[in-house]
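Posted in: Structural Biology > Protein-Ligand Complexes

Title: Requesting predicted complex, phosphoric acid mono(formamide)ester in pocket

I'd be grateful if someone could produce the 3D structure tokens for the following input. Sequence and ligand are given below.
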Amino acid sequence: MGKRFIDLSWHEFETLDYAEKVPYFNREDRPYHAVVAQQFDRGMLDRLCLLATSIRRIAKTRAGMEFLAGLLAHKRAMLYFSQPSSRTFLSFYAACQILGMNVSEVRDAATSSEMKGETPEDSVRTFSSYVDLLIMRTPVQGFAEKMAWLLSSTERPVPIINAGSGKDQHPTQALLDIYTLQRSFERSGGLENKKIVFVGDLARGRTVRSLATLLTLYPRIKQYFVAPEPLQIGADILRQLDAAGVEYEVTSDFEKVIPLADAIYMTRIQDEWDKDGESKKIDTSRFWFTEQHLGLLKPTGVILHPLPRRQEIAVAVDRDPRAVYWRQVRNGMWIRAALMATIFGRDRDIADYFDSGLA
Ligand code: CP
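-- Reply #1 --
Done. Output follows.
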């Protein structure tokens, strides 16, 4: 059993470090709330990836789809997205449909009673009254954690999934990135020992921060952070890597690291966080992946991107089999279905169906 939020005030809870918070988010060896990358251990990741593959294979037949659609047909989910999203919103929506869940949505806080002065906390508590699961994206760092704390202390707790919060966390993107990397390296020795290169706006990219955290769970991975100085990775992430004994390099020399890379994780400039158009003053063109760069990349190397992209990957690169970012989009649906099935304890049923040979 996990620890009980009700024993702590929000202030007491928010000042805990991640290691102390994890027992509140997880129950036994599975997530109940999925709000920060730090709550996942290696066993959880391996089980989620295996489950995502089982769901993907089961979903290939009509009988399999009917089986999956019966698993959570008695549950309702709500998608509360107060920041724009294409992939995360639609992949969660599709994953809910695969598992048979009914879905409701608020995509714009301007259509909720927040416009009449209701606090976001009261709005989310209201939404939770009608559903069994809340999936939320918010510009406010820590808000998903706060709602996990708040709802767990009510008479009707529901799990929270963080679909992206502030500049700090995007844990389910990191899950799909791990799943994509694992699938990409199935025939080349797995994820261990690989060199993973992050490129772009690493200071404000929450996907990079969450993935860099999960990669610490795999032995002997070296991480490279490639960005112009003002957009370099935060000192907090580097401290986390130091504490985990992870090797890393911080550099602005993109072409030097391309031939070393097993995976290159490109990101766009996150100028929605600009205070005064400061991103426009930074020349990022040295950090774009061009068609010519394909010649420098290992034959087994892969290129990922959480998307959306702008100019940082040339469209011509899409045709190369090492460009896996479109596969990455679809993997999001499978791993999110696996996560929700796990939260509701239906993972064993899926594994049994898969093992029965019906898939
Ligand atoms: N990768 C990602 O979070 O994309 P969206 O913003 O479209 O959901």
